[in-house]
Amino acid sequence: MITEIGQFALVLALLVALVQASVPLYGARHGNAPLMALARPAAQAQFALVLIAFLALMYAFATSDFSVFVVAENSHSTMPLIYKLAGVWGNHEGSMVLWVLILTLFGAGVASFGGNLPPALQARVLAVQAMIGAGFLAFILLTSDPLARVLPPPADGRGLNPLLQDPGLASHPPMLYLGYVGFSMAFSFAVAALIEGRVDAAWARWVRPWTLAAWCALTLGIAMGSWWAYYTLGWGGFWFWDPVENASFMPWLAGTALLHSAIVVEKRDALKSWTILLAILTFSLSLVGTFLVRSGVLTSVHAFATDPRRGVFILLLLAVAIGGSLALYAVRAPALQPGGLFAPLSREAALLLNNLLLASAAATVLIGTLYPLFLDAVGGPKISVGAPYFNLTFGPLMTPLLVVVVVGPFLAWKRADLAGALQRLWAAAVAALAGALVTLYLHSGGPLLAVLGMGLAAWLVVGAGTELAERLRLLRAPWPEVWQRARRLPRASYGMTLAHAGLGITLAGIIAMTSWKVEHIQIMRPGETVDLAGYSVRLERVEPARGPNYEGQRAVFTVTRGSRFVATLFPAKRNFPVAGQDTTETAIHTLGIADIYAVLGDGDGKGGWTVRLYYNPLAPFIWFGGVIMVLGGLVSLSDRRYRIGAPARRPLPAGPAGLANAPGD
Amino acid sequence: MGRRLLFILPGLVFLALVAAFYAGLGRDPALVPSALIGKPVPHFALPALLDGGAGLQTADLKGRVALVNVFASWCVPCRAEHPFLMRLAKEGVELDAINYKDKPEDARLWLGTLGDPYKRIGADREGTVALDWGVYGVPETFVIDREGTIRYKQVGPLSPDDINDTILPLVRQLSK
Description:
The structure holds two protein chains of two kinds.
Chain A: H1 2-30, H2 33-37, H3 39-62, H4 69-74, H5 81-86, H6 92-113, H7 119-143, H8 167-196, H9 201-232, H10 243-268, H11 272-294, H12 308-332, H13 347-377, H14 387-407, H15 418-424, H16 426-442, H17 448-472, H18 479-488, H19 491-516, E1 518-524, E2 529-532, E3 535-546, E4 551-561, E5 564-569, E6 572-576, E7 581-585, E8 587-590, E9 594-603, E10 609-617, H20 619-637, H21 640-643
Antiparallel strand pairs in A: 1-10, 2-3, 3-4, 4-5, 4-6, 6-7, 8-9, 9-10
Helix pairs in contact in A: 1-3, 1-7, 3-6, 6-7, 6-8, 7-8, 7-12, 8-9, 8-11, 9-10, 9-20, 10-11, 10-13, 11-12, 13-14, 14-17, 16-17, 17-19, 19-20
Chain B: H1 2-26, E1 45-46, E2 56-57, E3 66-71, H2 76-90, E4 95-100, H3 104-114, E5 120-124, H4 128-132, E6 140-144, E7 150-155, H5 160-175
Parallel strand pairs in B: 3-4, 4-5
Antiparallel strand pairs in B: 1-2, 3-6, 6-7
């Protein structure tokens, strides 16, 4: 019964979306206020209906109702409740519902909290949002019905992939989706602006918080995914450049560019059509990412892994959404008023350089991800593009970007003085040099590029700090004045400092871990000891370990340094009989500045066990830096100017391109 | 005009992308050399798909030259090659099959409507046996010699040319 209510709610949601996608648009064109106002309750109703369907599905999973096909295929009665619930999005159908749920959540957010938006813009934004919603609701109902029944119901379900039975992964897809779908807001705003034919500072100020929120969620999602890969897969790595990871990384790169170019629109009224294009591209990459790569539609070359109708439908949907918006862009963008001019050496130029480098990086990843597909489409040989390609192309693009990240904030808007900026950066430069030299000393003989990378990381962190100190006139003004400045400084400035410093911390972690990791792979017998980067790791014993839906073995390692006890590690191997799958549980002891990482392999039948032991220097920094970046985004999001709303827009026949709001901080 | 072109460019690039994707959908893939050529058939045993029919296991593929077709009811190219398989069966060639990641009722419906060219059909619901065979999509067709060694693998649908020029000559040669 509840299942049928959910299904009915989905159908109703589609109908509401169709109304919301058309009527307000007509109202906005003809200045009909009641028709425009319809968008708001419609968006709220659409969210409520999808929520009902989602809860119905969740209920079916929680109660193990195996007469629902998706539940029978992806759940099992012996699974812990938390994974039954996570099973809702551990499959194609359920994850689609979650996707649309988040989409409508954002729509309802604009409807409920977008009171300061001009009614016509709000109506158009919600209409565009509803078009996306209608497309995907139709996709769900026609090709991937999550609430379809199976009769007669099987006695028990087939279980969730054991690899997915992990708290990190259970919470990781919703986070990623929050990011992907969040960019739909930027997309809807961009398309609405194209329909309206107007982009100004006020527009950018409305778009930025949504983009920022999506960016935070995506950053966290990517960090969680990489953390999951690090501790579950047991290969000692944290990023593998596989299509699924690239799918989340491309929108991140484009979204980061968008975040920065929107600043230029907001502060200087320039780079408008570029920003619109970026907004469209960012969401397009999210769509391509989620649907073409994640759902496995195009990875399988002969036929779709599941259902050919899905693939064709998705392709059609993407063609309409992306193609339509790009066509609109081609027609309307040239008419956008070009904005403020700037010198080749200015804050704008630095942000533009940032955009070019980030966009190139996103294009590089896109090419690397899709190239095998294209080569196949034109009849070429089958190849796979692996880490060497990405390492080779990504580094050279990122290095100049990381240098500019620090310099940019020191440059003035419009026309800047590079010499002056560099003068104020001496502290960061000294720190970078010191960082490189210290690294060289500690790891004499280490790869030169890695040493330079550590210097770059120090440059980023100290540079971000220097910028903040400059603003506060730290150590140069009397303390009361510094305190005054610290209080008056907008939160967005603190956010930027945090985000840029976080980037440096992550970079340090990545470089240290890839360059100086210590690895031992060998067969060990109980009682044997291995020396791992100054720590003694002793295999005490291997014992059987059993859980609610698995059985397996567990090893006990004691880690000591000299005579001092450090930790006990319990890496394990598990076998899930229902799914017929094995998993390895890594054991990680973090020392703060490094991780000791142990994986239990197979036994050799003669009392020995294959074990893999790693010492990963600075590994925790990778995720710590990511969290700092997210924190920076959140602090920036809490900035006063987003809470008090945007300034009034200029009247429609725009005067000379100027600045509607107060000049930059 | 040059400036105008700049704004149209993103749309054009996207069009090219869609065209390539679409081409990728319907295409019959280039041959991938299989790592299993020259290796013995993996150890496996699959239950029968049809009630009263025969399942498929390693022992079935020894002592004669065997053809194993991997198919699924949801696979479009499989439908394309199906009539040729029917013709082969009519000509007296013995065909075995692995039904890949399929719902049994769908597969039965498929065989009921299009005809059943197979002698034995193993149902591989999870696709785990196909994984051992190195199958990464459907359809695929394997030629196995008397010793149970995989001699050839056709990736993608069989055409009459493939059957007449490659599969049947190989079967004849191996049967000598």
